[in-house]
Amino acid sequence: QGLLLESGGGSVQPGESLRLSCRALGFTLDHYTIGWFRQAPGKEREGLVCIDKRTYTDSVRDRFTLSRPHAGSTVYLQVDNVRPEDTAVYYCAADFQKICPESVDFEYWGEGTPVNVSE
Description:
Layout: E1 4-7, E2 10-12, E3 18-24, E4 33-39, E5 46-51, E6 59-61, E7 64-67, E8 74-79, E9 88-95, E10 108-109, E11 113-117
Parallel strand pairs: 2-11
Antiparallel strand pairs: 1-3, 3-8, 4-5, 4-9, 6-7, 7-8, 9-10, 9-11
């Protein structure tokens, strides 16, 4: 733990878009499969979107877009048209061996960044 750092969480209003960042500490993410996950209070951790290693085109699933715009240490998650049910702690995870889809078995995890959607 502690190898990935999420940021960008906070309070947002319904209908807005949200952009979260995931930065690797001390290494680059190019050779890792990356997944974004979230865990709402009282619920299981769920996968949102995934991108395979050395892939630099956006990965889109529903309202969730994972971007790895260039080689380096940071990837992003955009959530469009947020809803109150998007309130959760959001995590990024990385794995050197595995490929998409995302899995809670990914090797490296951040501590998460909380998002609260309310009026």
